[in-house]
Amino acid sequence: MNRPTVAMTVAGSDSGGGAGLQADLHTFAAFGVHGTTAVTAVTVQNTVGVTGVHEIPPQIVADQIASVVGDLRPTAVKTGMLASAPIIEAIATAFREHGIGRGGTIPLVVDPVCASMHGDPLLRADALAALRDLFALATVVTPNLDEAALLVGTRDQPDAARALLALGAEHALVKGGHGTGPRSRDLLTDGVTSWWLDAERIETGNTHGSGDTLAAAIAARLAGGDTLPDAVAVAKRYVTRAVATSYSVGAGHGPVGHPTADDPAGHPSPVAAAESTSAGAVAGAPS
Ligand SMILES: Nc1ncnc2c1ncn2[C@@H]1O[C@H](COP(=O)(O)OP(=O)(O)O)[C@@H](O)[C@H]1O
Ligand SMILES: Cc1ncc(COP(=O)(O)OP(=O)(O)O)c(N)n1
């Protein structure tokens, strides 16, 4: 019997097809994973910006999670745009009920989406506290530098990672995509061991959906049984290839590409390919 690995995204729809649950499903497919969804919001969005948001009723979001978990049994879950505090609270209750996240058996990747790359809000301003509370369930939380500033008050990667762990996340992955300089460096830590995931910064304006793609790739690999550091190392390689194969479509920022994952089915131990260090051995590393 041929049963695929199943993952779920709890996220908003991007009508332009570059980010949100559309990017998540492209990524799951690239990893050979069957993707399922709980839709939180429908955005009116293209490559230029977001001009409308329609939130899904919180109970309908929770019901989608229950329906999918009860039947398709995803082995990892990822969150993206969550829109409002009532939606986040309904999701947190559903996650606890269904064993998703810390304390359960299904790993949870929380991508704390707050705004689009154009600055359009994707989370209500009064929902930041609810989002911070959700971190206590996260196997890993993956803010970009702007989200780190908004959520924990700093763009310094080690400081932000420490603050995210203090909020209860098992691992923090603070992305450096919005930084400057020739390298695109993300910091992963569990508070004891830290890894700098380093890649060249690719010159392109077409990075729409890069954060969703990274988080979905992590979830895809966790669903297949990888450890978190291994999943992040594979996902980082994947998103770098995704940015390298990005393309122009529409008048604004184009999306990242979704190349076939280099090793969708295998379970190597690629973390050695990333720069792996013990926290105490790295100046400025968290712990
Ligand atoms: N121009 C780029 N070149 C290479 N990697 C990039 C580039 N922009 C973003 N990344 C990588 O893409 C991933 C998503 O990061 P980021 O763009 O900061 O997230 P978000 O989409 O949430 O803003 C990270 O691994 C980051 O380092
Ligand atoms: C519906 C929806 N969800 C998430 C985003 C933001 O996606 P992200 O991958 O963080 O990408 P950028 O917009 O920063 O490229 C979105 N725009 N819409």
UniProtKB/TrEMBL annotation:
Compositional bias per record (Low complexity), positions renumbered to this chain: 271-287
Pathway participation: Cofactor biosynthesis; thiamine diphosphate biosynthesis; 4-amino-2-methyl-5-diphosphomethylpyrimidine from 5-amino-1-(5-phospho-D-ribosyl)imidazole: step 3/3
Record lineage: Bacteria, Bacillati, Actinomycetota, Actinomycetes, Cryptosporangiales
Functional description taken from the UniProt entry: Catalyzes the phosphorylation of hydroxymethylpyrimidine phosphate (HMP-P) to HMP-PP, and of HMP to HMP-P.
UniProt cross-references to Gene3D superfamilies, sorted A to Z: 3.40.1190.20
GO biological process entries: thiamine biosynthetic process; thiamine diphosphate biosynthetic process
SUPFAM superfamilies membership: Ribokinase-like
Organism: Cryptosporangium aurantiacum
Record GO terms (molecular function): ATP binding; hydroxymethylpyrimidine kinase activity; phosphomethylpyrimidine kinase activity
Catalytic activity as recorded in UniProt: 4-amino-5-hydroxymethyl-2-methylpyrimidine + ATP = 4-amino-2-methyl-5-(phosphooxymethyl)pyrimidine + ADP + H(+); 4-amino-2-methyl-5-(phosphooxymethyl)pyrimidine + ATP = 4-amino-2-methyl-5-(diphosphooxymethyl)pyrimidine + ADP
Keywords, sorted A to Z: ATP-binding, Kinase, Nucleotide-binding, Thiamine biosynthesis, Transferase
InterPro entries: Carboh/pur_kinase_PfkB_CS, HMP/HMP-P_kinase_dom, PM/HMP-P_kinase-1, Ribokinase-like
This protein's name: Hydroxymethylpyrimidine/phosphomethylpyrimidine kinase
Region (Disordered) residue spans: 249-287
